[in-house]
Structures are given as structure tokens and as C-alpha cells.
Inverse folding.
């Protein structure tokens, strides 16, 4: 079921890029990211609902998937893996080493 869903999402995203064109979808991605930024700001000020933020996250996620298809899905997945690893490293406590000189 999950593979079927993923295949459907990929198919629709590929069709959107093909139908509307790369430049248009890049502009749409910028627009959707701006709407998410606004929704998050409004949410912090109690001017947007949780549901509005979720809706904007969904829009941005769809557009980011299209951008990943445009720029290279494998490269995108590699970059995500690297970023996740870097985030994990930042969260791992570092041991302090004290050097004493006598």
C-alpha cells in the first residue's frame, strides 16, 4: 500500500512538472515556501490554526518533491542523509578534554 501511494505521489509530481514546466514549478515552490513562512509566523501569534500550518507544510512538501525530481532525486536523498548525519552529530554531547600543564 505504501509503495502504491509513493508511486502515485511521484507520478502526479512528474506530471505536474511536465505539464506546467520547470520554471513555473520553481516559482510555485517559492510561493508555497513563502505561504508556509507566513503561516508559521501567524501561528506563533495565534493568527493561524494548526490545520492551516499543516496544509502549508503539505504544499511545500509536494513542491519540494517536484524540485527533487527536477534537480536529481538521488542527489537530494544523498544530501538529506548527509544533513541528518550532521544533525545527529550536533546533538551528540561532546566530551570535554582538559589539558593541565604543570
Amino acid at each position: 500500500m505504501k509503495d502504491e501511494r509513493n508511486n502515485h505521489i511521484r507520478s502526479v509530481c512528474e506530471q505536474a512538472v511536465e505539464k506546467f514546466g520547470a520554471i513555473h514549478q520553481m516559482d510555485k515552490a517559492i510561493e508555497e515556501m513563502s505561504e508556509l513562512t507566513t503561516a508559521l509566523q501567524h501561528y506563533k501569534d495565534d493568527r493561524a490554526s494548526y490545520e492551516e500550518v499543516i496544509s502549508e507544510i503539505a504544499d511545500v512538501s509536494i513542491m519540494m518533491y517536484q524540485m527533487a525530481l527536477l534537480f536529481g532525486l538521488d542527489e537530494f536523498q544523498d544530501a538529506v542523509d548527509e544533513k541528518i548525519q550532521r544533525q545527529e552529530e550536533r546533538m551528540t554531547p561532546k566530551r570535554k578534554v582538559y589539558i593541565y600543564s604543570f
In short: The mean pLDDT is 94. Residues 2-72 form one domain.
